[in-house]
Amino acid sequence: MLSRKQQDFVLAPFNRTLDVAEGTPRSGKTTACVLRYFLFLNISRDENHLIVGATQTQAFRLAMDSDGNGLLHLFQGAKIKHDDFGDYLDAETASGHKKIYYKGGAKADSDKSIRGLSLGSVYFCEIDILHASMVQECLRRTYAAHIRWHLADLNPPAPQHPVIRDVFDVQDTRWTHWTVDDNPVITDERKKELRQTLAKNPYLYKRDWLGERCIPQGVIYSMFDPQKHTLQSIPAGWAPIEMYFAGDGGLTDATSVGCYMVYRTPDGFVLVRLAGWYYDGGNKAMSVQARELAGTYAPWCRQRFGRRESGWYIDPACKALRKELELFGVYSSGADNNGRDAKGNRRGIEVGIEYAQSCIQEGRFFLLENEEYGHLDFIREAGMYCVDDHGHPVDAYNHAMDEFRYSVNKFVKNYVY
Question: 114 near 136, Cβ under 8 Å?
Fold first, then answer.
């Protein structure tokens, strides 16, 4: 038995590039997505298709098995097989033979697993936790499809999540909103119980009952306001003292390098992020990144702000970037990563985070608006960098945030404390 919402979703025409099912947990959207994808596979003339989850196991669990209602059970006689491109479901459909690959897509280099593979469609399971490079590569793999169509499901993400701007707003998207009321399996008694439980937490009520996009619980820099903390120009009376670069990077992770200036103001010293350079992904070699940073970005900052930097402070673990920068005449120091810091019962990076939080709350930190090297990625990460259930920083959306922390460590230890 399907609800009216599920029936309408499954039977909608395949006349858009992307169908998005966004809503609360236990809303019946996954069941509807699997059935809609099953229907599409019986229509498409293309042989190769793909299901992507955060891990391959998750892709199999959500779409192939789906508690006994997945594609493995819907296609009679279907079997799991393997070829040079990986594991796939071998199935006979109303429109011919199909290979339905299933892969993990949360890592920075996940996209390499589908290079050279032409696809007829892609089903993104929980698209908001997949790596952006994998999502974009999947969208490119379907350019020659018979019917170019994609399917995505997710729980409500943070309002600043990049998948909204970079995928949903770019593609020809049909968006369907789901709540627990759309799941015919959930009884009225259970709905009442769920609502009473979720109502005790405003964040959970909005996200898991109403299905609204809201700021994640435990956002570390919740005190940061993009409007309040962004300057259109440097105020009169602010005297520049020192300019420096701080950066975070990795071989397969994002690289974020900010240009910072310390100003003396009538109320004390402040730190301003003048510009930001950000590259998200592992497809651009460190040598290429270093060439852009040393040959284009840094000279632009020097000319734009009329000053030479006092130094470069890069993530101590990012030895590759530091080495490549040296080849272009930029000698960096290992950033202060709070490795030896202790403050009360806080240790390590939590001390640095506290420094950064205090700078924001006390009006000691600002962004400077500029069109060439703006702060969009910084603002996006600031809205999603959060702690886990134990109060520890989650290792995600933290590249610009680590860069920020490095810059603050230098600032507070030289000008504040």
Answer: no
